[in-house]
């Protein structure tokens, strides 16, 4: 009786701790034999268990049955040390309940890994042992008696330990298991997150706007896919399985949109249901507007990636974080005795879509104003021009920072680039305030993750860490000089106002060679302004109808380091001396003695950015490929299908068909077509005669090597200051006459023809 009562008390205590139903004592057990007692005890357990009892499953019943534990202890481990003697029934029950009270699967396997990792030890002269209640036991006592698992499970866990596993995760379902409706829901979530989510600059998380809920997103999905919509629970499970990195924060530490923040507060305080729904509808229209802006940006990005000859697209932003400050230590390696002073290091990141990624470094020795943005942009243009002629159309994506990007100096530089024919068209696009985190923040996230794992104690080491942050490696450069483009443009810019409102600008050149600036409030607007009802908009000042633009090159911005900051930095570096090697220490000593010396590493003076850029010239059409004959034959067959000659008598048909043929031959013989090496004459916009030698004619385009001279006088090849021939690309229809020079002069009959058309 006492033995049974103590056994039931042990089980009841363990069951209460784990939420099970305790067992009731049965007085009739005292009059039965020992064998009958065991049988009655097991049957009593099965009778009193409820549907929610954790001992309902037979595996758990057998593993935590005291009779089964006693039998295992009586059988023993059969090793020469008799390890099972050191283990009692209560210890075995405790170990088994730690494992078998958990459901089968990753949770139970993770618990087994934890127990093995905690109890497994190596004893000299005895090999691998397991620590149980202060005693060392053998392998069989551990897995067969204490844990109650099979031999195969034991070796599987040992294999996982050797591979370094700390936990077991459930394998995700196959893509095909989603089904048709699930795949549609996943596609909706992917598109919604891409256009509405903001990338965190220091992690891989994607944050949706504050105040949204999964239910509201599901309702938008259901409105679009009414027939093929899945349930809310299945929608949330797809989110949890495939988009774990996406979350809706309660409060966003990044710069928030004023409209979103105020809308959330107003909706939360509104009592009337009708008024609340009206506010929610207005807020959703705001979110839809910023979603349209992002979709337009993605379209421009994809177009530049697929048509690299025609478009160049880039996004430019700054990484304002203290992680890149020098010297940088990875977490636990930072010395405790070091001071808090660090050398401020700023990273300007840029992605030229489909081409390269850039990281431009400065030590905060220059003001972070429009000069920084303009120097960064021109530096990238020069680097891209090293691979060949830049495309004629440039798309730039920047944030709404008026100090750096959205000002008249940055806009004036765009007009100057168009005016000087570096580009045919430039568009500058600004995302909505508070919704500007895009793919450049994913680059900053990679930088942050790499800096979490690597030390960077000098500027050279920081460059190495940035290059190794992802593949292909970004191009990392230092701002050793800063051109004062702001003051270079300032005397020539016309005063403007209201330019902080529009989100899209376009710069082109009209027929009178004037650089024009147009704008739209949103990229989805159909009309460019200024319209006929708007006042005239001038980008540059004009004198006698001619735009005035700067000449020459700008001056340099003088680097400046605060003396007080350098003193604090020097004291902090002195405290870190034991944590710096010889090369690192020498670098800091050289830098602190003369911080400006880093700008004079090159003996040759730097050249102005635009001196390394060539003016835009139309590219020739794509050359004909080897299968052009097949395409010509195909086109001939297609034309034959559409051609239906008249049906008539045979004799009359021959007589009628001969006359057009004769007329066609006469027409062809009387006026030949221009060909290669012919001289061609055409008129420019001011009705002046231009003459050039035809180098090639492909479809509707022609390339001419230009000549200079006058009608009735000698014409000679036109070359620039470097001695290279000047060329021009024109439409074939623009050619007024083609001829051969006679004694370096235009033939008299051609001169008369040109004078008549002037």
Question: Can you characterise this structure?
Answer:
With 758 residues, the chain is an alpha+beta fold. It has three domains: 2-162, no CATH class; 293-610, no CATH class; 679-757. Helix content is 41%, strand content 14%. The protein is built from 23 helices and 22 strands. The strands form five sheets. It has an eight-stranded mixed sheet with strand order 12-9-8-7-10-11-13-14, sandwiched between helices. α6 packs across α8 (151-162) and α12 runs antiparallel to α13 (273-306). The longest helix has 34 residues, at 273-306. The chain is elongated, with a radius of gyration of 40 Å.
| Percent in strands | 5-15%
Please mark out the parts with pLDDT under 50 across 5 or more consecutive residues, or reply none: 1-5, 13-56, 652-670
Q: What does the average pLDDT come to?
A: 78
Overall, the morphology is elongated
With strands numbered from the N-terminus, the spatial order across the biggest sheet is 12-9-8-7-10-11-13-14
Record field, number of beta strands: 22
Radius of gyration: 40 Å
Overall number of structural domains: 3
Oligomeric grouping of the chains: single chain
- What's the N-to-C terminus distance? 127 Å
């Amino acid at each position: 009786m006492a033995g049974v009562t103590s056994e039931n008390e042990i089980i009841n205590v363990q069951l209460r701790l784990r939420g099970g139903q305790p067992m009731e004592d049965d007085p009739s057990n005292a009059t039965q034999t020992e064998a009958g007692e065991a049988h009655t005890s097991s049957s009593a357990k099965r009778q009193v268990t409820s549907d929610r009892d954790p001992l309902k499953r037979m595996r758990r019943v057998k593993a935590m049955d005291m009779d089964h534990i006693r039998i295992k202890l009586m059988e023993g481990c059969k090793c020469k040390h008799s390890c099972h003697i050191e283990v009692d029934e209560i210890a075995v029950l405790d170990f088994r309940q730690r494992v078998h009270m958990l459901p089968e699967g990753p949770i139970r396997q993770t618990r087994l890994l934890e127990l093995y990792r905690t109890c497994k030890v190596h004893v000299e002269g005895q090999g691998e042992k397991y620590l149980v209640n202060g005693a060392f036991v053998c392998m069989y006592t551990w897995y067969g008696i204490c844990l109650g698992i099979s031999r195969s499970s034991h070796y599987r866990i040992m294999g996982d330990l050797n591979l370094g596993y700390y936990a077991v995760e459930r394998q995700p379902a196959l893509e095909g298991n989603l089904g048709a409706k699930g795949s549609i829901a996943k596609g909706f979530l992917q598109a919604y997150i891409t256009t509405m989510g903001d990338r965190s600059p220091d992690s891989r998380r994607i944050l949706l706007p504050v105040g949204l809920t999964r239910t509201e997103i599901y309702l938008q999905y259901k409105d679009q896919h009414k027939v093929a919509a899945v349930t809310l629970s299945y929608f949330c499970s797809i989110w949890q399985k495939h988009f774990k990195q996406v979350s809706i924060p309660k409060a966003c530490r990044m710069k928030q949109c004023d409209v979103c923040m105020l809308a959330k507060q107003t909706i939360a305080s509104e009592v009337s249901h009708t008024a609340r729904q009206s506010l929610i509808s207005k807020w959703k229209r705001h979110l839809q507007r910023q979603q349209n802006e992002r979709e337009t940006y993605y379209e421009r990005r994809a177009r530049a990636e697929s048509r690299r000859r025609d478009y160049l697209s880039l996004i430019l932003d700054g990484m304002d974080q203290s992680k890149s400050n020098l010297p940088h230590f990875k977490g636990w390696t930072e010395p405790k005795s070091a001071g808090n002073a660090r050398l401020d290091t700023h990273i300007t990141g840029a992605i030229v879509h489909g081409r390269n990624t850039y990281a431009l470094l400065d030590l905060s020795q220059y003001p972070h104003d429009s000069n920084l943005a303009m120097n960064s942009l021109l530096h990238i243009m020069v680097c891209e021009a090293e691979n060949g002629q830049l495309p004629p159309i440039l798309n730039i994506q920047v944030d709404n920072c008026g100090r750096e990007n959205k000002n008249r100096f940055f806009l004036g530089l765009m007009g100057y680039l168009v005016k000087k024919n570096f580009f045919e068209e430039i568009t500058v696009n600004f995302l909505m305030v508070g919704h500007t985190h895009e793919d450049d923040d994913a680059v900053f996230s990679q930088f942050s993750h790499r800096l979490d794992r690597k030390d960077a104690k000098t500027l050279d080491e920081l460059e190495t860490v940035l290059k190794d942050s992802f593949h292909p490696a970004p191009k990392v450069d230092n701002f050793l000089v800063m051109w004062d483009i702001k003051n270079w443009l300032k005397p020539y810019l016309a005063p403007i106002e209201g330019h902080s409102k529009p989100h899209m600008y376009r710069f082109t050149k009209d027929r009178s060679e004037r650089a024009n600036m147009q704008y739209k409030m949103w990229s989805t607007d159909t009309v460019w302004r200024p319209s006929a009802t708007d006042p005239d908009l001038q980008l540059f000042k004009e004198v006698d109808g001619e735009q005035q633009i700067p000449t020459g090159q700008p001056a340099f911005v003088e680097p400046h380091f605060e003396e007080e900051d350098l003193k604090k930095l020097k004291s902090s570096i002195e405290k870190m001396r034991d944590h710096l090697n010889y090369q690192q220490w020498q670098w800091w000593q050289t830098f602190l003695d003369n911080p400006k010396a880093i700008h004079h590493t090159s003996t040759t003076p730097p050249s102005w950015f635009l001196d390394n850029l060539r003016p835009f010239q139309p590219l020739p059409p794509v050359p004909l490929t080897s299968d052009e004959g097949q395409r010509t034959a195909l086109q001939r067959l297609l034309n034959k299908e559409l051609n239906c000659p008249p049906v008539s008598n045979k004799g009359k048909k021959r007589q009628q068909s001969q006359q057009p043929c004769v007329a066609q031959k006469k027409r062809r013989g009387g006026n030949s077509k221009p060909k290669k090496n012919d001289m061609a004459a055409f008129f420019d916009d001011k009705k002046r005669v231009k003459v050039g030698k035809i180098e090639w004619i492909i479809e509707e385009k022609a390339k001419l090597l230009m000549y200079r001279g006058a009608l009735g006088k000698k014409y000679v090849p036109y070359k620039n200051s470097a001695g290279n021939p000047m060329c021009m690309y024109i439409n074939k229809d623009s050619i007024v006459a083609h001829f051969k020079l006679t004694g370096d002069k235009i033939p008299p009959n051609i001169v008369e023809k040109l004078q008549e058309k002037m």
